[in-house]
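FIELD: query
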Amino acid sequence: MGILNFIGFKSKSKHQPKLDLSWLQADMHSHLIPGIDDGAKNMEQSVALIKRLHGFGLKKIITTPHIMYEFYKNDPKIIQDGLTKVKIALQNEGIDIEIFAAAEYYIDEIFYENVKHDAELLTIKDNLILVETGFINKPALLIDTLFELEMKGYQPILAHPERYQYLLSDRSLQGELIDRGIYFQLNLLSLTGFYSKEVKHFAEKLVDEGRIKLLGTDCHNMRYLDMLETLSSSKYYQKIQTLDLLNTSL
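FIELD: result
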């Protein structure tokens, strides 16, 4: 019995794609390797999520498991081994989509030390590396870590800046990060109001100001994709398609 039959996934289900993301081509932020972070819990879920994303017209997925020392102690081997299993499952189900893996690195003292000591880091492509922080307080090592990454030849991408309360309230920090050339990656779901109205408004502001370099689904489960399908009714759905994004070059 195929994985999708096992979980009852049907082509004529309520999950018929209502959203066209073919213009984006590549999703570079998601949590689709099963059982290693707060994303897909098992292979059945992973395959179903990827099938649905493929149905939105995406040609490539670069999935990004969390690496967060206190909670998700992943490393390149764990992630690459998980990716290999996902690829085999997709092949068995006849799902033809390119899938690669990087990571979403949590900025803390341990990550800072790893960067300083040249630990192996997984990148989105070439030198592009995805980093995140806590949502409430600015990390003490934020600027130092970004500087260290740059000194090591990486181009930092700040994941979902629209969700950080400390950044929303600190206009000077926003400007400093932009001036430093830090890339901003927006979660598509932020434009739907999925997280909060405040996050939605900040996301729209960043789009209006042309601050966004990359877009991602940050997909964790089916609830994310159910809400993502409402994106086409957002007044920003057409606007984000005019942005000068790096997704299509991934």
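FIELD: remark
The radius of gyration is 18 Å.
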